[in-house]
UniProtKB/TrEMBL annotation:
GO terms of molecular function: aspartic-type endopeptidase activity
GO biological process: proteolysis
CDD domains reported for this sequence: pepsin_like (cd05471)
Family of this protein: Belongs to the peptidase A1 family.
Keyword Signal attributed: yes
Protein name as annotated: Peptidase A1 domain-containing protein
Presence of keyword Signal: yes
Transmembrane segments: none
Residue ranges of domain Peptidase A1 in the record: 1-347
Keywords: Signal
Signal sequence extent: 1-19
Amino acid sequence: MFSLPFTLSILFLSELASAAETFHIPLQRRAQQTHDLDYYSAAADNLRAKYNIGSAAGASTGRRRAAVENIPVINQGTTIQYGSGAVAGSINRDVVTMSNFTIQNQVFLGVDRLQSGLLDGQTSGILGLAFQTIASTGGVPFWQNLLNDDQLESPEFSFWLARSDSRGDDSAPGGVFTLGGTNSSLYSGEIEFLDMPGSRPSYWLLPLQSVTVQGERVSIATGNSALSAIDTGTTLIGGPSDDVASIWAQVPGATQAANQQGFWTFPCSTEVNVTMSFGGRSWAISSEDMNLGPVTTSGRTCAGAIFDLNMGSNIPAGSGPSWVVGATFLKNVYSVYRANPPSIGFAELSTAAGGTGTAPGSRSTAGAGSILPKAGLASALSFISIWTLL
Ligand SMILES: *[C@@H]1O[C@H](CO)[C@@H](O)[C@H](O)[C@H]1NC(C)=O
Ligand SMILES: *[C@@H]1O[C@H](CO)[C@@H](O)[C@H](O)[C@H]1NC(C)=O
Ligand SMILES: *[C@@H]1O[C@H](CO)[C@@H](O)[C@H](O)[C@H]1NC(C)=O
């Protein structure tokens, strides 16, 4: 284990960054930890809260519930809900520097209270990568400030999220985050950019247009119900109840997990092949990413990586994304987040980056992964690995 903490360096610097840079940051997974099922139930609830989806209170009926206590805010401050919990603190402004990039007057939350388990001693900060419209602090996010200040070579950032290898080797590369461009050694062919809907970017959003399971097209809701947040900070894929049920209905032997509402299980011997399209080409999710590992002592029943995000409650139309598409999908593509025009691009992974989503090695022991900005732990049922910045 050689994980180093990602540190949001807050330095008092007098020199300004030189203009128009691209910065490639190797990512490293956090050490793997085992967690019980209640832990993941709680994490799923946190993700629902983060996206204001459904009723997390209603979600607690019918299963054992882990402690998801809210942090009492003693001092006047902001609480921010992440997939893995909540933090609170006061809003500050200071000089923030990352590599050659510097923002003189960056708004950020100085966290003085956090839900237990949110950070693990290896992480000292979380850096938001969505748009100002949804920033809890109200401030312009660091990346957007860099963009406005013309410090980025291209108005975009990109991710390769590596699958953990069969040995769960924490020192293996966890991926690469590139700020201000792409890293052409990590993808092959063209990057297919899809315009984001709406005129005021908030989350990184695309409409989910088609899903296949075991080669068969599954009928899914359209319009606002198909709006999907493409979220590098979330581990799994969450979607509306009916659509998620339709997906698992295509998998022989799949049933709803008895004690883990919102999750589905299936015979471990079954390969679950899912593809997703957001309006352009269809991208295959490796069956190893769909399988979170055994959830029974016999080892014959495994949990699936697509879960019911709203657990039967109705998501009010227009209230935000209905799907949250995390690393389960994103490990299978090279993804590019372009601010201008607001669009998201996907490309095939290069061989160097693990090929086409059928990387060798056993089923992922982790399932998992999240990066910046939010440690999305709504996650793998037996292990979790989180990417953090070196
Ligand atoms: C692109 O990613 C590769 C693989 O991680 C890395 O070795 C290389 O340094 C990166 N490119 C740049 C310009 O940093
Ligand atoms: C930082 O800027 C210097 C000078 O322009 C340049 O040589 C160096 O490559 C830059 N570093 C990164 C990580 O972009
Ligand atoms: C899943 O996809 C793999 C690779 O394409 C294929 O070999 C396998 O037969 C598929 N399984 C099912 C159940 O569709």
